[in-house]
Amino acid sequence: MSEEKNTGCTRRDLFDTSLKVAAVGGLVGLTGRWAVMGGGSALALAPGAAAAAGNVEVAPGQLDEYYGFWSGGQSGEVRVLGLPSMRELMRIPVFNRDSATGWGSTNESLKILSEGLTPESKAFLKKQNRVTFDHGDTHHPRPSYTNGSYDGRYLFINDKSNTRIARIRLDVMKTDKILEIPNAHAIHGLRLQRYPKTGYVFCNSEMRIPMPNDGTILDDPKKYTCVFTAVDGDTMKVAWQVMVSGNLDNNDTDYAGKYVASTCYNSEEGTDTAAMTASPTDHAVFFDIKAIEEAVKGGKGQMIAGIPVVDGRKEAKSPFTRYIPVANSPHGCNASPDGKYLMLNGKLSPTVTVVEWAKLDDLFAGKITERECIVADPEVGLGPLHTTFDGRGNAYTSVFLDSQIVKWNIADAIKQFKGEKVNPIRQKLDVHYQVGHTNASQAESKDADGKWLVALCKFSKDRFLNVGPLKPENDQLIDISGDEMKLVHDGPAFAEPHDATIVHRSKIKPVDLWDRNDPYFADLRAQAKKDKVELATASTIIREGSKVRVYMYSAAPSFSMTEFKVKLGDEVTVIITNTDDVSDLTHGFTLVGHNVCMEIGPQASASITFRADRPGVHYYYCQWFCHALHMEMQGRMLVEV
Ligand code: CUK
Ligand code: CUA
Q1: What is the mean pLDDT of the segment spanning 317-326?
Q2: 603-634 b/e with 16+ CB inside 10 Å = b?
Q3: Mean pLDDT across the stretch 494-499?
Q4: In degrees, to the nearest 5, what angle opens at C-alpha 197 toward C-alphas 196 and 202?
Q5: Which ligand ends up closest to the CA of 387?
Q6: Region 231-256: what's the mean pLDDT?
Q7: Exposed e or buried b per residue across 499-533, where buried means at least 16 C-beta atoms within 10 angstroms of its C-beta
Q8: For 83-96, what is each residue's pLDDT tens digit?
Q9: Ligand 1 and 407: CB distance under 6 A
Q10: Ligand 1 atom with minimal separation from the 458 CA
Q11: 139 lines ligand 1 (CB under 6 A)
Q12: pTM for this structure?
């Protein structure tokens, strides 16, 4: 029985490791809590405890209760998982190229990947014979809000590597907008306006660059600056920017639509590690959204690259920002779901600094000092990175160096700060290993429900079968529904999911079929109209000089055209409409030897353009197994010399 449970919901190694950890804890004379903790992890495997821990096993045919939106890190994509099973449900290509769907090859995706780039990037890429970047580094996936709750419209995510953000439509789970942020360098922190709705997408430029960055300023760091950016999430246009002091790291917003804050490292404004960490304190910068909006409306912003920019640097003593001092190099920045507090995670300091949002009105009005906004500073362990919440007054901080999730009570931390003799720490749970982000179910919204927590560990070391020098990450699932946290699952993940957001399935309503009038195919509809063809019934070739448009439709198991002819050197665009209106009936179009491949979802249209530079017969086929005669779903392109 217990054997079954062991193999069913977790790994045998977990059992061994937990016991070893407990023993080591005893050896080095750690407190009783450690012993309880180690035992607690092991207990999670006992049949009784596993039952109490809630059912993590989602049987075949059963659906998960939560969607998890995972960043794909350096892979540049977003992954959708089901929780608690931790099954990977979908990968959404975003900044990367994708062989299965043709993302980065189809005309529709190339437009999305290229239209939001700055003129400088477009010119740079053109010199390299490219239209877009092929690579992305995603960190922070965040679903849109209405009144502090997830509304299921969009998911936004950053690309640190090429200073971009993307918007994914959650009805179809496809990327629909990508925007490069001008005046910025490496977008890292990204969070969304919660009230009244999203609204703004707040983006942190992590690196400081000269302004203007035109090659005239090199060695004068005083002329370097960082900008904080507000993008309108509906139009995906930059609304305004604020110049700040220090390097922006992570950010978060309140639940009232008034303030947004960001942790900063390098308040020293140095350019190497020693200079960057010289001072014992850094700061978090708080932005007054109304004040900035009014200044921008009143024309007080300086126009840089077409964007109104206001000066919120420390020395400017502006009405836009306040700098609250915190210990050196803070990292995570997390608003509690009750709308009251913001947690600034110490990283180099073993503490989490708690700021009360309600104090900010007085701070901006000059009635209280920066330090008076701090209401708690609990010591949680070595290397606090990120904090999440259960909606019952507890916070859970990931502690990188100690490899633990530390549960602490917010009210008790505040009492302790006031001098009362209380210990806010409730439990320390070992995770494996070196945890980065942690996030709990619904915890980034006011509907935090305290059921599941994921610990996204940077190292998996010995937790899985060895796959060579590059190891997977280890995303661990922890049950937080009871008084004690229980580790219930290890999940290997490729290329660094920095962060994940867990959303109840009732909040997300994806469709089964595309709508023929979807904006995704607007360009194709317009082109078809010009060509006087009907997308869903066309089997036509339109020639315009050496430009050839091949219109066809697909209905399982065939393409409406099983052969077409073009001339050597033609620029060929193949436009296919999938007329099947059956759920899950996706077709594809792959042209052998041409670097051409695309997905065509049910009721979708898709197009791809290539040059017919190889004479002869070339087969195209459907690469999605759609029918008993799927193998036969093919045709020939004849390239005539
Ligand atoms: S960051 Cu990666 S662990 Cu980019 Cu949110 Cu903290
Ligand atoms: Cu259509 Cu396979």
Answers
A1: 96
A2: bbbbbbbeebeeeeebebbbbbebbeebeebb
A3: 95
A4: 115
A5: 1
A6: 97
A7: bbbbbbeebbeeeebbeeebebbeebbebbeeeeb
A8: 999 999 999 999 99
A9: no
A10: 3
A11: yes
A12: 0.91
14 has pLDDT over 90: no
266-284 per-position pLDDT tens digit: 888 887 888 888 888 899 9
Q: pLDDT class for 319, splitting at 50, 70, 90? A: very high
Whether 601 and 514 have beta carbons less than 8 Å apart is answered as yes
* 436 CB near ligand 1 (under 6 Å): yes
Averaged over 47-59, what is the pLDDT? 57
Burial classification of residue 595, based on how many CB atoms lie within 10 Å of its CB (0-12 exposed, 13-18 middle, 19 or more buried):
exposed
Measured distance CA(593)–CA(600) in Å, rounded:
20
pLDDT of 410-466, one tens digit each? 999 999 999 999 999 999 999 999 999 999 999 999 999 999 999 999 999 999 999
Residues counted in the chain: 641
Ligand nearest to the CA of 555: 2
Say how many CA atoms lie within 13 Å of 384 toward its Cβ. 30
> Whole-angstrom distance between the N-terminal and C-terminal Cα of the chain?
71
Ligand nearest to the CA of 398: 1
In 587-627, DSSP assigns E strands to: 587-591, 596-600, 605-611, 616-621
How far, in Å, is the centroid of ligand 1 from the Cα of 103?
A: 26
Report the separation in Å between the CA atom of 558 and the middle of ligand 2, taken as the mean of its atom positions.
Answer: 7
Backbone angles phi, psi at 36, to 5 degrees: -60, -45
For residue 626 and ligand 2, the question of a CB distance below 6 A is answered with: yes
Pairing of strands 87-92, 587-591: unpaired
Q: Is 624 in the pocket of ligand 2 (CB under 6 A)?
A: yes
For the record, the structure tokens of 272 come out as 């190497």
Q: How far is the CA of 496 from the centre of ligand 1 (A)?
A: 10
What average pLDDT score do residues 613-623 get?
Answer: 98
Q: Which amino acid is at 77?
A: E
Q: Any idea of the CA torsion for 211, 214, 219, 223, to the nearest 10 degrees?
A: -10
Name the pLDDT band for 22 (thresholds 50, 70, 90).
very low
* Cβ contacts of 233 within 8 Å, gap of 6 or more: 144, 154, 156, 167, 192, 193, 198, 199, 200, 201
Distant-in-sequence, close-in-space partners of 81: CB < 8 Å, separation ≥ 6: 67, 68, 70, 87, 88, 89, 500
Closest residue by CA, ligand 2 atom 1: 587
What residues are paired with 324 via a beta bridge?
284
> CA nearest 185: which of 225, 217, 156, 244?
225
Which atom from ligand 1 is nearest to the alpha carbon of 385?
Answer: 6
Per DSSP, the three-state class of 576 is strand
